[in-house]
Design a protein that fits this description.
Blueprint: H1 2-15, E1 25-30, H2 49-57, H3 71-79, E2 83-88, E3 93-97, H4 101-108, E4 113-120, H5 122-125, E5 138-141, H6 156-161, H7 165-169, E6 178-183, H8 196-200, E7 204-209, H9 223-232, E8 234-235, E9 239-240, E10 247-252, H10 262-277, E11 281-284, H11 309-319, E12 323-327, E13 350-355, E14 379-382, E15 386-390, E16 395-400, H12 402-419, H13 425-434, H14 453-459, E17 463-465, E18 474-477, E19 486-489, E20 496-500, E21 506-511, H15 517-525, E22 530-537, E23 542-549
Parallel strand pairs: 6-10, 6-11, 7-10, 11-12, 12-13, 13-14
Antiparallel strand pairs: 1-3, 1-4, 2-3, 5-16, 8-9, 15-16, 17-23, 18-19, 20-21, 20-22, 22-23
C-alpha cells in the first residue's frame, strides 16, 4: 500500500507541473517491469500465435524482454504532461514529447524512472532541409530499357549474380514467409504495377507509421518503394524480385526531413511490433552514424555491437529467432569514417555490402572491422547500377547504394530459409557464409564475398550415397550442429573414415572400430566452423556425407 500511495502522490505532482521551454523529444528509461499485468506464462496476451510458434520451433524461451512495458509506468509519465510516442519493451522505456523542462523534472522524480535523455530538438529540426539516406546513393532514369528474354526482365542481374534462379525454379519464391521492412516512405506502393500481385493476392500484410501519428506510409519518400521492389516485385517478363511470393509488412521509422536519435528508437519499437506479428525476416536499408545535432554522433568505439540503441534492438530481435538483414552503409569512400553504420555492427545482424554486376566492390560500400575486431560486412550483393521501381507511371530507375544490395540479399535469403525452415537463423547465416566466394579468406571490404545460393541449397542435401549403398554407413545428428552430436556407424568388417575440409584438405584418415567411435565423435565436435566431407569406406559399401559445423 505504501508503494501505491507513493505512486499516487507522484502522479499528483506530475499533473501540477508548470510549463517551461525545453527540447521536445526524450527517451525515458525505466528501472524494471515490476508489478506488470503481463506474464511469460500468458504470452498469447502480447504475442501472436505465429510469433509464439517461432520461439517453439527454435527452442527460444519467452522471457522478460517479451513482457510489455508496465502500462502504469506509461500512464504516470503521461500524467506528468508528456505525450507518449512509442514504448519499447526490449529497451524497457518510452519515447515522449515534452513541452517543458518541468515536465521532465517531474518524470525524473518518478521512482521507477532511471534516466531521461534528449533525443531530438524540435527547434533544430526546423532548420534542417530534406536529407538523403546515404550520401552516395543515386538514382537515374533507365528510360525504355530492353527486357531480357526471361521472366526476370530488368531484375535479372542481381539474382543471377547470387545464383538464385535455381531456388525459384525449385519452387522457393518466399511463399508463407513474412518479411518486415523499416524505411522512410513507400510512395506509390499502393499503385505501382510492380506491386500489383502482392496487393491483389493479400501479401501486403499491413503498414504502420512510427514517424507521424496515424500517418499514411505511402508519402514523403520513394526509398522504401525502391527497396521493396527488389524483393516483392512481380511482373513476369519485365521485373521479378528475389522473393516475389513472400508477404510483407511496411513500417515507416525514418523521418526523411531530419536525422535524429529518435529514429533508432522508432526502429526498435517497430521491430518489436513485427516480432509480435510473427515476421521471419526484417530488412533494414538504414544506417546511423551522424545526426543533425552532432552531440549525438556515433564514434568508432560505438560500433561494438552493444552500444547503439538500434544495434541493441537488432540483437534482441535476432535472439527472438528473427533474421535481421541490414545495409553496411555508404561511407566506404570517406577518408574520415569509412566504417559500417549502426545497426550493421551487430554480431548476429547479417550485414550486406555492395558490388557491381562485375562482382567488384562499389567504392562507397562501407567497410569493417567492428570496433571489437569482427569482420564486416558479412556478404555482398548487387548494389551498384541496380534497376529499381520508382513512383509514377510505373517507372523504373537505375540506382546505387547498399540500401539496394540489402533487399536483394534479404529476398534471396528469405527463399533459402523457406527451403530450410527447420534450421535456426544462425545456421542459415553460417551456411550462406560458407558458400560465398571469399569464405576461405574473408576481409573487411568484401566480408565472405558473394553467396552462391544454389551451392548453399545443394549443401543441405546431406546424404550423397553411391549407387551400391543399401544401408547407411554413417549418420550424424544434429547436422548442421553447433557442438554436441551423436554419430552412428555401421561397422561390419574393416571400415575406413576420411574427413576433408571444404577446400579438399584431408583432416582425418583412420580405420574405425567400436572402440574408436567415441574418439571420432570427439574429433568432429572439436572442428572449427565450416563445411566438411566425411567419406566412409566399408568392405562392400562406400558413402560420403556433408557435415556442417556452425
Amino acid at each position: 500500500m505504501k508503494k501505491l500511495f507513493t505512486l499516487l502522490m507522484m502522479l499528483g505532482l506530475c499533473i501540477s507541473v508548470s510549463a517551461q521551454i525545453a527540447p521536445d523529444k526524450y527517451w525515458i528509461q525505466f528501472t524494471d517491469k515490476n508489478n506488470s499485468p503481463y506474464s511469460v506464462d500468458r504470452p498469447e496476451e502480447f504475442l501472436s500465435e505465429r510469433s509464439i510458434q517461432r520461439r517453439v520451433d527454435y527452442g527460444i524461451a519467452i522471457d522478460s524482454y517479451d513482457i510489455p512495458v508496465n502500462p502504469s509506468y506509461l500512464q504516470a509519465v503521461a500524467n506528468c504532461g508528456a505525450e507518449i510516442l512509442h514504448p519499447s519493451k526490449w529497451l524497457n522505456g518510452v519515447t515522449v514529447i515534452a513541452s517543458s523542462s518541468s515536465v521532465i523534472d517531474a518524470i525524473e522524480a518518478l521512482p521507477f524512472v532511471q534516466t531521461t535523455r534528449t533525443i531530438e530538438n524540435d527547434e533544430l529540426k526546423q532548420m534542417i532541409k530534406e536529407k538523403t539516406y546515404f550520401s552516395n546513393e543515386t538514382l537515374k532514369a533507365v528510360g525504355a530499357k530492353s527486357v531480357q528474354d526471361n521472366d526476370y526482365g530488368m531484375a535479372l542481374p542481381q539474382i543471377e549474380q547470387l545464383n538464385g534462379v535455381v531456388l525459384h525454379e525449385r519452387g522457393y519464391l518466399g511463399q508463407g514467409m513474412w518479411v518486415g521492412i523499416c524505411d522512410g516512405g513507400y510512395l506509390d506502393v499502393d499503385g505501382h504495377e510492380v506491386f500489383a500481385d502482392m496487393r491483389d493476392n493479400g501479401r501486403l500484410l499491413g503498414t504502420r507509421d512510427y514517424v507521424y501519428k496515424n500517418g499514411i506510409v505511402y508519402t514523403d519518400s520513394s526509398h522504401g518503394t525502391s527497396c521493396l521492389s527488389l524483393m516483392a516485385g512481380n511482373v513476369p517478363g519485365k521485373y521479378v524480385g528475389t522473393a516475389p511470393l513472400a508477404s510483407y509488412f511496411l513500417c515507416r521509422t525514418e523521418d526523411v526531413n531530419s536525422e535524429s536519435l529518435l529514429e533508432e528508437y522508432n526502429w526498435v519499437s517497430a521491430a518489436e511490433f513485427l516480432d509480435s506479428l510473427g515476421v521471419d525476416v526484417i530488412s533494414t536499408s538504414l544506417g546511423y552514424i551522424t545526426f543533425d545535432n552532432s552531440q549525438f554522433d556515433h564514434v568508432y568505439e560505438d560500433a561494438d555491437g552493444a552500444t547503439c540503441a538500434i544495434t541493441i534492438g537488432s540483437e534482441i530481435a535476432c535472439s527472438r529467432g528473427i533474421m535481421c538483414v541490414t545495409s553496411a552503409g555508404n561511407e566506404g569512400g570517406s577518408d574520415t569514417y569509412p566504417y559500417i553504420s549502426a545497426p550493421a555492427d551487430g554480431e548476429n545482424v547479417f550485414t550486406i555490402g555492395a558490388v557491381g554486376a562485375n562482382g567488384n566492390r562499389a567504392y562507397f560500400s562501407s567497410i569493417g572491422p567492428t570496433y571489437d575486431g569482427r569482420i564486416k560486412p558479412d556478404v555482398m550483393a548487387h548494389g551498384y547500377g541496380v534497376t529499381v521501381a520508382s513512383p509514377g507511371y510505373d517507372s523504373y530507375y537505375e540506382g546505387s547504394g547498399t540500401s539496394f544490395s540489402c533487399p536483394v540479399l534479404a529476398g534471396m535469403l528469405t527463399c533459402f530459409w523457406q527451403a530450410n525452415k527447420h534450421l535456426k537463423p544462425e545456421v542459415i547465416r553460417e551456411v550462406l557464409r560458407l558458400h560465398s566466394d571469399r569464405y576461405s579468406n574473408p576481409d573487411n571490404e568484401y566480408g565472405y564475398g558473394i553467396t552462391d545460393f544454389a551451392a548453399a541449397l545443394e549443401s543441405l542435401s546431406i546424404e550423397e550415397n553411391d549407387d551400391f549403398v543399401i544401408k547407411s554407413l554413417i549418420s550424424i545428428f544434429p547436422n548442421p550442429s553447433d557442438g554436441e552430436i551423436n554419430v552412428e556407424l555401421d561397422l561390419e568388417g574393416k571400415t575406413m573414415v576420411k574427413v576433408y575440409n571444404q577446400i579438399g584438405k584431408l583432416l582425418y584418415n583412420n580405420e574405425i572400430d567400436d572402440y574408436k567411435v567415441a574418439e571420432f565423435t570427439s574429433f568432429l565436435t572439436g572442428l572449427n566452423e565450416g563445411l566438411y566431407l566425411i567419406n566412409v569406406i566399408g568392405e562392400e559399401k562406400n558413402q560420403t556425407i556433408k557435415y556442417i559445423k556452425y
